[in-house]
Write a structure and sequence with these properties.
The two termini are about 25 Å apart. The protein has 2 domains: about 1-125, no CATH class; about 130-205, Maltose phosphorylase, domain 3 (Sandwich), CATH 2.60.420. The protein has about 210 residues and is an alpha+beta fold. Helix 2 (about 50-60) packs antiparallel against helix 3 and helix 2 (about 50-60) runs parallel beside helix 5. The protein has 5 helices and 13 strands. It has helices at about 1-10, 50-60, 65-75, 85-90, 120-130, and strands at about 10, 15, 45, 100, 110, 135, 140, 150-160, 160-170, 180-185, 185, 190-195, 200-205.
């Protein structure tokens, strides 16, 4: 992962590349990706599926600072902050692009929007890996991986019969580690039961050394 960060993350261009350097005239041929111009799509551009899996990997390593940094790097909402950003990205900032070019003539240009499964991966990485909200055998598991600078965050999870208002506190500035879980003011052990539960409930989670 350190090698991936060193060789594939181009922070100055807002890119997380699939591979480097791009293929051009290779023998034997690596296959169809050599048919793309170097630095376009899978041939050395940002292939957003894999970029998000990189974010997932850093989150699973407990590196919340780097996971969120790279998530923000990929986030299309951050590609349209200024007119210059818009002119560079040339794609909709409200959908996920399947790929972003690294070719010198088109650095940072988005491609294949409204088409890619990367959108669902971005959603899963945000909710499950960063905010740490997952389902486990009908129960809610809460195990965030966030930046040290996040003091807290809130989320609401709804089922057809119930609503869970979740507040995650980070008083010690950690990236991972659940110290305390309370459901409606009572300390809970493990996952929060959801099956058969009705009504509105408050869940408090405190991060810190366990």
């Amino acid at each position: 992962m350190e090698s991936a960060d060193k060789h594939l993350v181009r922070r100055e261009d807002g890119l997380l590349l699939l591979l480097t350097p791009p293929f051009d005239r290779m023998t034997p041929s690596p296959g169809y990706i050599q048919g793309y111009v170097p630095g376009v799509r899978e041939n050395g551009g940002q292939y957003t599926h894999a970029a998000l899996w990189t974010v997932m990997a850093f989150a699973r390593l407990g590196d919340g600072d780097r996971a969120m940094e790279l998530f923000s790097l990929i986030n299309p909402a951050n590609k349209g902050k200024t007119p210059e950003d818009v002119a560079k990205y040339r794609a909709e900032p409200y959908v996920v692009a399947a790929d972003v070019y690294s070719n010198p003539a088109h650095v940072g240009r988005g491609g294949w929007t409204w088409y890619t499964g990367s959108a669902s991966w971005m959603y899963r990485v945000a909710i499950e890996e960063l905010l740490g909200l997952t389902l486990n055998r009908g129960a809610l598991r809460i195990n965030p991986c966030i930046p040290k600078t996040w003091p807290r965050f809130e989320a609401t999870v709804r089922t057809p019969q119930a609503e869970f208002h979740i507040a995650v506190e980070n008083p010690n500035g950690v990236t991972r580690g659940v110290k305390l879980v309370e459901v409606d003011g009572k300390q809970a052990e493990g996952d929060v039961p959801m099956a058969g539960v009705e009504g509105s409930h408050t869940v408090r989670v405190v991060l810190g050394s366990t």
